[in-house]
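Slide 14.
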Amino acid sequence: MDTRKITAEYRLAQWSEIMQKRVARGQSIKAFCEEENIKRNTYFYWQRKLREMAHTVMVEQPEATRGLAPSGWTQLRTIEAPRTEESGIVIAVNGYQISVNMQMDENLLRRVCSTLRSL
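Slide 15: predicted structure.
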């Protein structure tokens, strides 16, 4: 029994729950950390660890299961539709929707994505 591995997995599970709690509340990282008395650097450290773990899980999965979302993630489904000049995608985060089509300004899309990453 590797106690270090078990401890690491336990901590990752705890931090996954903490981050899901923040998202469920719809709070910014700054506000959540202040309310929960968590150092922002600690929050970002564990966020990075969770992302690395998710990446590792996805890379190590066999081709047949690669489309499945890791535990705690949401599997998105794709819908095939004919492409037109007006077709695009809808991004939904915390109850807000953003429609993106071929005419959208690239710089505006970058700013929107940057803002979404900070949530």
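Speaker note: The two ends are 38 Å apart (CA to CA).
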